[in-house]
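To fix ideas, we close by showing one paired sequence and structure record:
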Amino acid sequence: MVNNVSRPTRDSHVERHYWKAVGFLVILILAGTGFWGLRRFHPTLFLGKPDLIAVPNTESPQDRKTPVQPAAEARSQSNVALLNINTAAAEELQTLPNIGARMAQRIVDYRKVHGNFSSVDGLLNVKGIGPKTLEKLKPFVGVE
C-alpha cells in the first residue's frame, strides 16, 4: 500500500526558520530605530527633568538690533539658561550634542580630579573633546 501523503522536505524547514529569523530581525531593527528616535529627539523622556535640557542660542548676528555686547553681559541678559559644566551631573551633560554617557562621565571625573573649569575652553583638556566638539558645545554650556 502506497501512502499519498507528502512529507515536508528538510529544505522547507530551513526556509521556514530562515523567514522567522528575518522577521524577528526586522522587528528588532524597527524597535531599535524607534527607541533611538525617542532618545535622540525627546531626551526628557529618559531624564525626567525637562528643565535641565540645554537650549542653543539660535539668534544670528545679523538679527541683532543692538551692538554686540561682551559675552558675559549677553548671557546675563538672555532668558536662555546655559548648562553649568562645573555643577552639571552626568545625566544633564548627556543632553548636550555629541556627549554620550562615557563622555559625560569623563567630564565629571576630570572635574573631580582637577577641580572646576575656569572657562568653557577647559573642556579641551578632557580626553575626546577637540576643537570641533567644543564649538558645538559652546552655545549650550557656561561656567559660574
